[in-house]
Amino acid sequence: MGWRRSILTAGALALMTLTSTARADVAGYLAPSSAPDMIRVLPSPPAAKSAAEDEDLRAYKATRHLAGSPRWSLAQQDNRGSPEDFFKDFACSLGVTLDTASAPTLNILLLRVIKDARPFIDPAKDHYARKRPYLVIPGDICIDKSASLAKSGSYPSGHSTVSWAVGLIFAQLAPDRTTEILSRARVYSESRVVCGVHYPSDIAAGRLDGSALFSAIEADPQFRADLEKAKAEVAAARAAASSKPDAGMCKVETDAEAQQPW
Q1: In three state form, how does the secondary structure of 181-194 look?
Q2: What span, in angstroms and rounded, lies between the C-alpha atoms of 250 and 228?
């Protein structure tokens, strides 16, 4: 059974918020067996009592004071992960708020990519079984301390993996907005540290994971065909400018981009 069994155990729990709204009839672009061995690709998480682990713990402790702040609320928002959520979360960076009506191809494309993410994330999560920071040093986190969250490994960050891949996809769809889009993807992954459910090294590994995921799906002919259709959808939505992003949320995201939270 190998790692195929592992994706149904602890690691799979970490992506529940990313896949809970995924349609059962939508398959990924990739065969699960085609995923690279991310246990070999990713560096090991920081060793116990190492300087790198000390830095990770320092970041966790330094961000606990953000509870109740706008940055904390943004971290709570960034815990979501359906295509519709990504449309909202990247609206400011894209300059337009998409939805399933204006971007139906992109909606399905993202559902497929989210499904493709699992074999890129779960084997390493289960292999390292790193405890989340709030389980090492008690403190508030921005979401419920559920049993499933506690069981899932901290390394690498699944949300960071998917959000970075989504950022790379959106940058293909609106290349003139690449700076804004990838900056938002960075902030999205930093939200996992603000939330208290990941360390900086977890999100760094997640971005590498997301790059590997994007590299794999980019080689798929059906993905490339869908990407071209999605590009036309985004261009039409931007030209129509029918749904402007919320200015208040855009300011929160810009403020988050300007200052690393730890």
Answers
A1: HHHHHHHHHHHHHH
A2: 27
Q: Catalytic one among 112, 184, 186, 198?
A: 198
Q: Tell me, what amino acid is at 81?
A: G
177 is catalytic: no
Domain 3-22+49-258 belongs to what topology?
Answer: Vanadium-containing Chloroperoxidase; domain 1 (1.20.144)
d(CA 163, CA 61): 24
Omega of the bond leading into 36 within 30 degrees of 0 (cis): no
Nearest to 209 by CA among 55, 14, 2: 14
SS3 84: helix
For the chain, the structural domain boundaries read 3-22+49-258
The C-alpha atoms of residue 110 and residue 112 are separated, in whole angstroms, by 5
Catalytic residue chosen out of the listed positions 132, 159, 184, 207 = 159
Assigned token pair, 90: 């990247």
Instruction: Tell me if residue 127 is catalytic.
Output: no
Active-site annotation holder among 192, 207, 209, 226 = 192
- 204-251 tens-digit pLDDT: 999 999 999 999 999 999 999 999 999 999 999 999 987 899 999 999
Active site residue 202: yes
pLDDT digits (tens, 9 = 90+) for 119-162: 999 999 999 999 999 999 999 999 999 999 999 999 999 999 99
Q: Report which residue type is found at 190.
A: E
Cα dihedral 95/97/102/103 (nearest 10) = 80
Under a CB-based contact definition with an 8 Å cutoff, are residues 160 and 229 in contact?
Answer: no
Structure tokens belonging to residue 259? 């200052």
For the chain, what is the largest distance between any 2 Cα atoms, rounded to a whole number of angstroms?
55
Among the listed residues 122, 202, 209, 226, the single catalytic one is 202
**What type of residue sits at position 129?**
A
